Amino acid sequence: MLLSLGILLSYLVGSIPTAYIFGKIAKGIDIRKYGSGNVGATNAFRVLGKRMGISVLALDALKGVVCVAGIADYCLKLGAPVDELVLRVLCGVAAVVGHSLTIFLRFKGGKGMATTLGVLIGLALKFPALKLILLAEVLLWLIVFMLSKIVSLASIVSAVFFPIFFIILKQPLPLISASLCLSSFIIIRHKPNIIRMLQNKEPRLNFKKSK
């Protein structure tokens, strides 16, 4: 019962459509009708500006942290009969699924990268050995983005290496399994971006144009 509650709450927290809410409050628009139509941080950068984009990114990541380090903690304190690592992993995965398939927008949400980052941050807070993977993922994303200025490419490359880092550092099976699932999920969610990149039509993010 507590396990199911934790997963459900994590899904609902992950489902909060941050970019959609910011679009409505800041500019009175439905962000799904502008830019790429995606309800994520990258489209928020393009449509709402740099400040809003950074806010959306931070809050989308925070959702992952809250689920892994907050909701999971609460369930454990209540005596959830499940391994701590497994519970945190399940709450994290539920948060990412909620962000990408939000119940509040007819199961259409973001790509999941920001919330996955938040999940990794939450796990690193509880299991310090994962800080190295967190650092490697952030650096890899930044390097690819700085070279290409294409957010989707940086996200896809980071997603590909996500499970590889866990395998190389010989992490527990639940973490490797979760990393494989999240990696596959993020790559699948980026299918339209992959097609545009193959056609050389994927837009680059220009911070100078973002207000």
Task: For this entry, give a set of tags.
mainly alpha, 211 residues, 72% helix
Describe the model.
With 211 residues, the chain is mainly alpha-helical. The chain has one domain (2-209). Helices cover 72% and strands 0% of the residues. The protein contains ten helices and no strands. Helix 5 (84-100) packs antiparallel against helix 6 and helix 5 (84-100) runs parallel beside helix 9. The termini are far apart. The mean pLDDT is 94.
Compact description:
The chain has 211 residues and is mainly α. It is built from 10 helices and no strands. It has one domain (2-209).
Per DSSP E runs of 2 or more residues, the count of β-strands stands at 0
Class by alpha and beta content: mainly alpha
> Which radius of gyration do the C-alpha atoms yield?
17 Å
Shape verdict: globular
The number of helical segments is 10
**H/E element order:** HHHHHHHHHH
**Poorly predicted runs of 5 or more residues:** none
- What share of the residues does DSSP label as strand, in percent? under 5%
Overall pLDDT, averaged?
A: 94
How far the N terminus sits from the C terminus, by CA atoms, comes to: 47 Å
Q: What is the share of helical residues?
A: over 70%
